[in-house]
Amino acid sequence: MKTVSQMQTEVRSGCGSASVVNACSDCSVRSRAICAVLDNSELAELSKVNRHRSLGAGDCLFFEGDPTEAYYVVTDGALKLYKLLPDGRRQVIGFLFKGDFLGATFSEEHAFTVEALTPTELCQMPREKFELFVNDSQPLGRKLLQVATNGLASAQEQMLLLGRKTAQERLASFLVWMSARAEERGDDGDHLGVPMSRTDMGDYLGLTVETVSRTITKLKTSGVISLAERGYIEIRNRDRLEEIAEG
């Protein structure tokens, strides 16, 4: 009998690599990813069509307008989602982390570009086969509805950020959100890994990179946060940060 490594077949593309892998049983995000609602027999069936996808930092998973061919679960790393405006400007519309689901659109084309912020690992599920699973599994259908509802809530929150909050309130809200997401993954919510650049933050929050830098300095000077090692922010006064975020 062949081993798993012997059966793996690398399929190279311009945006990372995919390989045949049966790893659902010991997946590191099994308990909190969308597939957590599936029982062992359903997982065994899904694992027959799953593919492992690897991206390097800066690699694109797909581009806006590309045909929708698969759905994904982030098993490690971080991604940013963005759209290009007609005048060439970029609007970052979201960030995804370990355990997040990507592709709940049921549309023929991707509405945005997805780029890896760090080396990232994904579970790739062929669109047609995954949608058959959704049709046959009520728990999976309900979970997808929850994902879509959460996505709508996030979009509404970003509209509030862009339309009503000051620069300091926007950045504080972003850090509170990042902290909550870290805790969901089992990480330290006060010692934040921040894989996105200040330009990415600005493009998400509707701020210039200079304003992001000034606002970070202001929060640091007032003792609300401190800058830890590269890529990390320490929350020093959570109560005050939440007060600022709430305006």
Quick synopsis:
It contains 8 helices and 13 strands. The chain has 247 residues and is of the alpha+beta class.
Descriptive key words:
Jelly Rolls, 247 residues, alpha+beta, four-stranded antiparallel β-sheet, disordered N terminus, 2 domains, 13 strands, Arc Repressor Mutant, subunit A, single chain, globular
Total E-strand runs: 13
* Low-confidence runs: 1-15
Report the CATH superfamily of the largest domain: Jelly Rolls
Total discrete domains: 2
Major sheet attributes = 6 strands, antiparallel
Q: What overall form do the CA principal axes indicate? A: globular
Strand content: 15-25%
Span of the ends, CA to CA? 63 Å
- Total of DSSP H or I helical runs spanning 4+ residues: 8
The CATH class of the largest domain is: Mainly Beta
* CATH fold type of the largest domain: Jelly Rolls
Average pLDDT metric = 85
Derived structural class: alpha+beta
Task: Write out the strand line-up for the largest beta sheet, numbering strands in chain order.
Answer: 1-2-3-10-5-8
What's the architecture of the largest domain in CATH terms? Answer: Sandwich
The helix fraction, in percent, is 25-40%
Radius of gyration from the alpha-carbon trace, in angstroms: 19 Å
- Topology as a string of helices (H) and strands (E): HEEHEEEEEEEEHHHEHHEEH
Description:
By secondary structure, this protein is of the alpha+beta class. It folds into two domains: 4-158, Jelly Rolls (Sandwich), CATH 2.60.120.10; 165-246, Winged helix-like DNA-binding domain superfamily/Winged helix DNA-binding domain (Arc Repressor Mutant, subunit A, Orthogonal Bundle), CATH 1.10.10.10. Helix content is 39%, strand content 25%. The protein contains eight helices and 13 strands. The protein has helices at 4-7, 40-47, 127-136, 138-164, 167-184, 198-205, 209-221, 238-246, and strands at 11-13, 16-20, 51-55, 60-62, 70-76, 78-84, 90-97, 101-102, 113-116, 120-126, 191-193, 225-227, 232-235. It has a six-stranded antiparallel beta sheet with strand order 1-2-3-10-5-8. Strands 4-9-6-7 form a four-stranded antiparallel beta sheet. The protein has a three-stranded antiparallel beta sheet with strand order 11-13-12. It starts with a helix and ends with a helix.
